[in-house]
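User: What would this chain look like folded?
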Amino acid sequence: MAPTSTPQTPFGRVLTAMVTPFTADGALDLDGAQRLATHLVDAGNDGLVINGTTGESPTTSDAEKSDLVRAVLEAVGDRAHILAGVGTNDTHHSIELARTAERVGAHGLLVVTPYYNKPPQEGLYRHFRAIADAADLPVMLYDIPGRSGVPIDTETIVRLAEHPRIVANKDAKGDLGRASWAIARSGLAWYSGDDMLNLPLLSVGAVGFVSVVGHVVTPELRSLVEAYVSGDVQKATEIHQKLLPVFTGMFRTQGVMTTKAALALQGLPAGPLRAPMVELSPEETAQLKIDLAAGGVQL
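Assistant: Here's the prediction, encoded as C-alpha cells.
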C-alpha cells in the first residue's frame, strides 16, 4: 500500500532517482538495491524513482526492471512512493513496461519524452496518453529536452493534464518562464528535475524534487523544501547556497557515474556501471571528494 498523498503532492516532496546497484560481475544486485532504498527512505525521501536514467535503464532488461521494482517495493513500499520509469522511444514497448510495473505493484509511473526519434507534439501527446490509458497508475511526465531532443510544449502539457491519471511533471527543461506558464495553466504537481534549480522552481510553483543529489543530501533537501513551504525563504536560500558545490560536483560528468562513486565513498551499495558508462578517473574522483566536502557531505 502506497503512503498517503494529496493532489498537491501526489508523490510527496522529496524523491531520489535511485541508481541500480550491480554486483562486481555486473549482475543486478537486488539485495544492494533493497539496502540502498532503505537507506534513502530512512534519510527522508518520500519516494524513489526506479529504472530512470540514473538507474541505467537503457542497459537493464525488462525482466531486470520488474525484478528491481518488486525488490524495492518489498523493502520500502509501505513507507515511500515507488515510481517505475517506463518511458522509451517506442510507445508499444512503454505500454508493456507500464502494465508490468502495475502488475508488480508500482505506485506510479515516470514517463520520459521519447528520445532520438524526435516526434512532433501530436506524437508526444498520443504517446503519453496511450501510456496513461494502459495502466491504472498515476503518471509523472518527464520533460528533459537536453536528453530527448524535443521539449514538451506548454500547450501539449496543458492538453495532457486533462487526463485523469496524468498528475505531475518532472521538469528538467531549465526554463523558469515556460515552467511558470505551464504550472499556472496545467495545474499539474510540478517537480524539479534539475537540482541546481530546486529552489527557483519552488518559487514559481513547484511542490518538490526528483533529485540525483538526494543520494547524498536528502536531509538537506527536505530541510530546504520544508523551510520554503513554511515561509522561511531566507533559510531555504541558505541551504541552497550551502549545497551549490554538491549540485555542481555531482554533474561535472554524467550523474550516474558521480553518484555511484559518491555512494562507494560512503560504503553504500552501488557497484560498477554498465557500458557505455565508465567509472570516474582518479582525478575526477578527487575533484568529487572536494566538491562533496565543500557542500558538507561526510565521506
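The first helix runs from residue 30 to 43. If you want, I can go into more detail on any region.
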